[in-house]
Design a protein that fits this description.
This protein has about 200 residues and is an alpha/beta fold. The chain has helices at about 1-20, 25-30, 30-35, 55-60, 75-85, 130-140, 165-175; strands spanning about 45-50, 65-70, 95-100, 115-120, 140-150, 180-185, 190-200. Pfam families: Methyltransf_12 (PF08242).
Length: about 200
């Protein structure tokens, strides 16, 4: 039974990898637009929180950032490390660091990063304001947070309707956590909204 469970677990993880890396994802995810929200990344340190397969990690590294790929699942971090090795001809090895985090803490050091990105991750968080406060502490003064998550309504991708977080709710939570200059983009992506804020 244990072997069967292990096989199922491996297959389940492989299915997630295929979903996250599906070539069709770029059509609705528009990664270029999302990365552009972070402005000029050259020389910046960025936390990719909920990095998964590194879909955004490597795109940001290609733009000149040093990226800390953060996830609670060590399998994803191992996957990113393998891909990093494969991409050494494009991205310097020290451009991507992996970090195992906790469900309630990204484990960022104080003032460690210039920016943080959470894509398709925000709705998984339980105590979101508390989590945002920890992200804020990890940002340098003036640092930027960008959140991408799913709009309400029936769509072919995304989580069940009951777990989605509305842009208004997310905005309120960012304000409660002390973020400023909140901007909301509900039209740039087909199935998702983008919210950004800065640390004072």
């Amino acid at each position: 039974m244990e072997g069967e469970a292990d096989n199922f677990d491996i297959q389940g993880f492989q299915n997630l990898v295929e979903t996250y890396e599906d070539p069709e994802r770029s059509e609705w995810q528009n990664p270029q637009l999302v990365v552009e929200k972070l402005n000029d990344l050259r020389g910046k340190v960025v936390a990719d929180i909920g990095a998964g397969t590194g879909y955004f990690t490597f795109r940001m590294a290609e733009k000149g950032a040093r990226v800390i790929a953060i996830d609670i699942d060590e399998r994803f971090l191992n996957y990113i490390e393998e891909r990093r090795t494969e991409l050494l001809h494009i991205i310097p090895e020290n451009a991507v660091e992996t970090r195992l985090s906790l469900e309630d803490d990204p484990l960022l050091n104080k003032n460690e990063v210039d920016a943080a990105l959470l894509v398709n991750t925000y709705h998984f968080l339980d105590n979101r304001v508390n989590y945002l406060d920890k992200v804020k502490k990890g940002l340098k003064p003036g640092g930027q947070l960008v959140i991408v998550d799913y709009k309400a309504g029936a769509m072919p991708v995304g989580p069940p309707e009951e777990v989605k977080i509305s842009p208004d709710e997310a905005t309120n939570e960012l304000l409660r956590a002390g973020f400023e200059n909140i901007e909301v983009d509900e039209s740039g992506l087909q199935f998702q909204y983008i919210i950004s804020g800065t640390k004072k």
